[in-house]
Every structure is written in structure tokens, then in C-alpha cells.
Write a structure and sequence with these properties.
Elements (H helix, E strand, L loop, with lengths): L1 H19 L21 H5 L7 H6 L5 H10 L10 E6 L1 H5 L3 H7 L5 H9 L2 E2 L5 H6 L13 E4 L2 E4 L2 E9 L3 E6 L6
Parallel strand pairs: 1-6
Antiparallel strand pairs: 1-2, 3-4, 4-5, 5-6
């Protein structure tokens, strides 16, 4: 439990510091554009907000805390900020179903490469909707390993993991919440 709280604290600090980071040439003022001369509310209409990412969405979803902790432990959470990604995100219940000894072993520093391999099995380097999964011929993970995709009246599964919530649009990609950690 203490390890989980520590990792959650580290993730929180990461988001605080990166959200507050001042980029060269950036100002603290919002970007403002005018839509036209007759608009009384040109300031309100022209304010743009920084695009959300999969990382932002993970931070807002407590049911994905264990996945977030694992991504931080592996040191690969930032790859989910890149444009055009899909994440098959096992929920906390999926992680709870893994044997404790197996999970604790994966989370040890000396097994970081194995943890990275497991987590990259859940990432696709393109933005794929759930509907497109059924027509996608050869979908591969971040390590170019093909997925086994099955579609039925009950829904879609990927490598035996059922998609519980699909097409969470995080701006830079989609998150599909699944009920199983893909270990193979």
C-alpha cells in the first residue's frame, strides 16, 4: 500500500511540475483570437486550452491507478503523450487478478525490461477506434507483435481481454479500458 501511495504521489508531482513548466516563448496569457468585429464575447470565444493526452486522462481515472503506477515504474509514461496512440488500459480489477508474486516481481527494478514489455503490449502506435478494430487487418503493438482481435454480439476482445469502455478520446489518442492484463 505504501508503495502504491508513493507512486501515486510521484505521478501527481510529475503532472504538477509539467503543467506549471514555462516553455520558451510561451506566456502565461491565454491565446486570444477574434472571430469577428461584431462579437461582444470575442475574448471568451477565442481562448484555447492545451490539448489533453492519454497521460492526462489516466491521471483523472482512479480505476486506472495501478496501470499508471506501472507506467511510472517502467519509466515509459511519457510515450503516451505522443500524437496518434491507442492504449488498451487494464483496470485495477484486471491487475488484482494477477498473481501477487508475479506482479511484485514485475514491479522490481531488476525486472524493468519485462515490465516494459508487458506494458508495451497494451500500446498501439496509431489512433484506432473500437469500430476500426473489427476491420483492422493486422494490428500490432508497440513492439510489432500482432493482436488476436475477436468481435461478436457481446463486444470486442483483444488477446482475450474484453473491452469494457471504448473510444475514450484523450486528444492524442484513444483509450479502451479492458478487463485483463495482457501478459503474453
Amino acid at each position: 500500500m505504501s508503495k502504491h501511495l508513493t507512486l501515486t504521489f510521484i505521478v501527481s508531482l510529475f503532472f504538477i511540475f509539467t503543467a506549471c513548466e514555462q516553455r520558451p516563448g510561451a506566456t502565461n496569457a491565454p491565446e486570444i483570437t477574434e472571430e469577428g468585429d461584431d462579437s461582444d464575447n470575442a475574448l471568451d470565444e477565442g481562448i484555447t486550452e492545451k490539448s489533453r493526452t492519454i497521460v492526462d486522462e489516466l491521471a483523472d481515472r482512479p480505476e486506472l491507478n495501478r496501470l499508471t503506477d506501472a507506467l511510472v515504474q517502467a519509466g515509459i509514461i511519457n510515450m503516451l503523450s505522443e500524437e496518434g496512440m491507442t492504449l488498451f488500459a487494464p483496470n485495477n480489477d484486471a491487475f488484482d487478478a494477477i498473481d501477487d508474486d508475479v506482479w511484485e516481481s514485475l514491479m522490481e527494478d531488476e525486472n524493468k525490461d519485462e515490465l516494459i514489455a508487458v506494458l508495451q503490449r497494451h500500446v498501439v502506435n496509431s489512433k484506432i477506434s473500437a469500430e476500426a478494430l473489427s476491420t483492422q487487418g493486422d494490428l500490432q503493438d508497440a513492439d510489432n507483435v500482432a493482436y488476436d482481435i475477436e468481435t461478436s454480439e457481446e463486444g470486442t476482445s483483444i488477446d482475450g481481454a474484453n473491452i469494457l469502455e471504448a473510444d475514450i478520446d484523450a486528444g492524442n489518442g484513444y483509450i479502451h479500458i479492458i478487463d485483463k492484463v495482457i501478459l503474453e
